[in-house]
Structures
1.
Amino acid sequence: MRLGKLGRLVLLAAAIGFIIGAITAGPALAQGRSEGGMQLFKIITTKDEVTIGLSAAELKKLGGGGDVDSVASGLVGSGTLTAWMYAVRKAPDGKLQHAPVRRVAVFANAVVRIEPFVTDQEVVPPSQ
């Protein structure tokens, strides 16, 4: 079976798409999580939004696998959640990274939505 010019172009485009997908899939799987295990979430309240980071130990205390459901159920169960607030900064090498700013308390009655926060930038764990 011979492919015409159009068939070869479609096959070439599919191959290029597969290669690009394979190259970018690795970093995409680690987005929003640091090597130290910090996972980022965006908390949307009635007035503003804040990006928070929770360590693997903090997520385990909330009683779950570290997903949005465990964060939400932990927040509703206790009424408040204390976490590191994260913001973007420049690293010494000039790259952008998400770094902890300060500890913040989030109150369940003000939260409208919780989302996983996805980033391709480095997530810096807090230095306690």
2.
Amino acid sequence: MSTSSLIGASFPVQNVAIVGTGLKSVERVTGRLTRRGFIAGGAMSGLWMGLFVGIAFALFSTHEQAGYLITTPLLGAIFGAIWALFSYRTATRHGARDFSSVTQVTATNYEVLVEHHCAADAHLILAGPVATPAMATFVWVEQVIARLMGRVVAARR
């Protein structure tokens, strides 16, 4: 609520930082890695690469364009399948990890931080409408002190 309230009040959001604390790593399993699927993926990748090479050869050749468009994708698929067969053991860590996953870092707590020269304005926006005149005076004094402190800190730089 606090960040959206600041944005809605036309607060200069370039002075806002959202800090996550209590980081943890979450790994979500997306599927099983099978040898057949791995080899099929390698063959398809090789097929596309071979097709690209075949098109390039066919464009710059003066004869046998159809031959390039047929043989290079087939050779690429065979090469991709063989390459995937060798890399399967490395990808699965020699069979110990035969699943695919996605890792994400998440935070358990988030804090919204505002630079010191804008802190009083952010406090006024987040506090909402002030209920009593005494509270309004207190908030105004707090805002003036914060702005003066901001000028002192800025002058020291």
